[in-house]
């Protein structure tokens, strides 16, 4: 049994925006029904050029349904330029995390979004780097090597769980095993990984999580409270509530507790300001 967060369970049991948009501006189709994991993503633009509606149809596991459901909520209100910056990590973070064996579900969501935007623009997505090893899921040897190095994968089962490669017809299993053996035997095959910069969406999610998990409960014990109002770059705007409003030490609380906590657990350049 996978250890899914409550958010994942909610989006699986109560998926949002399921269905077809008949007059969709963009449609993205990834995966393969014959191989048991497929996703079709639709969006409709409003008069302001922003995504006004997004829906999905999927055939897959709980994490695939949850990731697709979350993605529809994440993109509504965004421009296409903003939406295409969403990463699979953003989707996983929105859901409170996914088991590493299920990260492929968020990857599939991101790929479906990219495909739908390309469909709207009337262009073809650039070819993936490397040789396609798994034709069922379009996984290349470069993607497999990166996954092996990033997550220290050692077995065929681990690669299959993490990338979906080999999870369809199984014809590529021998080639995947060769890649595993070659990659682990020679450091010359290691592809340097880029350390991802924290996106604004990831930063806001981490701040919100810290507020709800620790900062607000601690302030409430003394009759106070705090509300996250806005995040602008590295400036975090908050509003004090309850006993904190009239407390003579409120500024000390903001700087020595709230700001310090944010810098320790989210980003060391954050500054707390009272809205």
Strand count, sense and barrel status of the largest sheet are: 3 strands, antiparallel
CATH topology of the largest domain: Sufe protein. Chain: A
Strand content: 15-25%
Q: If strands are numbered along the chain, what order do they take across the biggest sheet?
A: 1-2-3
Mean pLDDT value: 86
The helix-strand sequence is HEEEHHHHEEHHHHEEHE
Structural class: alpha+beta
For the record, give the distance between the C-alpha atoms at the N and C termini, rounded to a whole number.
Answer: 44 Å
Q: Could you estimate the helical fraction of the residues in percent?
A: 40-55%
Number of domain units: 3
Estimated radius of gyration: 22 Å
DSSP E strands, number: 8
How does the overall form come out from the CA principal axes? Answer: globular
Structure description:
β7 (235-242), α10 and β8 form a beta-alpha-beta unit. The strands form 3 sheets. A 3-stranded antiparallel β-sheet has the order 1-2-3. Strands 6-7-8 form a 3-stranded mixed β-sheet. Strands 4-5 form a two-stranded antiparallel ribbon. The chain is of the alpha+beta class. The protein has helices spanning 6-13, 62-75, 80-83, 88-94, 103-121, 141-151, 156-163, 173-185, 200-220, 250-265, and strands at residues 26-32, 37-45, 51-59, 132-134, 139-140, 224-232, 235-242, 271-274. The protein is globular. The chain has 3 domains: 6-121, Sufe protein. Chain: A (Alpha-Beta Complex); 132-189, Arc Repressor Mutant, subunit A; 200-274, 2-Layer Sandwich (GMP Synthetase, Chain A, domain 3). Residues 192-196 have low confidence and may be disordered. The chain is built from 10 helices and 8 strands. α4 crosses α5 (103-121) and α4 runs parallel beside α9.
């Amino acid at each position: 049994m996978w250890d899914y967060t409550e958010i994942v369970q909610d989006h699986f049991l109560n998926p949002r925006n399921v269905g077809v948009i008949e007059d969709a501006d963009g449609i993205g189709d990834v995966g393969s029904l014959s191989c048991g994991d497929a996703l079709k993503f639709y969006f409709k633009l409003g008069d302001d050029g922003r995504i006004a509606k997004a829906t999905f149809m999927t055939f897959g596991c709980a994490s695939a349904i949850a990731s697709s459901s979350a993605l529809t909520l994440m993109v509504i209100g965004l421009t296409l330029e903003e939406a295409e910056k969403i990463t699979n990590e953003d989707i996983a973070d929105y859901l409170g995390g996914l088991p590493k064996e299920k990260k492929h579900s968020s990857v599939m969501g991101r790929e479906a979004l990219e495909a739908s935007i390309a469909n709207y623009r009337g262009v073809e997505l650039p070819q993936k780097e490397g040789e396609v090893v798994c034709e069922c899921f379009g996984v290349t040897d470069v993607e497999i090597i990166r996954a092996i190095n990033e997550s220290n994968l050692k077995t065929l089962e681990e690669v299959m769980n993490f990338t979906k490669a080999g999870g369809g017809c199984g014809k590529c299993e021998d080639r995947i095993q060769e890649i595993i053996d070659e990659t682990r035997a020679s450091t010359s095959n290691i592809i340097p990984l880029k350390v991802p910069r924290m996106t604004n969406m990831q930063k806001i999610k981490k701040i919100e999580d810290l507020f709800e998990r620790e900062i607000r409960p601690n302030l409430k014990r003394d009759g106070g409270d705090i509300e996250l109002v806005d995040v602008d770059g590295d400036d975090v705007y908050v509003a004090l509530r309850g006993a904190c409003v009239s407390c003579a030490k409120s500024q000390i609380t903001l700087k020595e507790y709230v700001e310090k906590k944010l810098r320790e657990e989210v980003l060391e350049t954050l500054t707390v300001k009272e809205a």
